[in-house]
User: Fold this.
Amino acid sequence: MAVNAQVAVAMTATNETVLSHAPAEAQGVTLEASAYSISLLMINAVSNQQAASQLANASVVTTCAEILEAAIKGAGL
Assistant:
């Protein structure tokens, strides 16, 4: 079965275009994956910082409560 010459040229041009764009597409996907990984890293860092802040606040509140309790007991109230 004979293939029309215009069809053959069009298919060759399409194949060349796909093959010439492949490295850029691959690099784009790699960079997108890296950006996503970095964003997850930053989200985890913020979450850990917030948890540490809550823990510090709870520690201060507990310490203040113990100081007040000791002061009340020491004053005989």
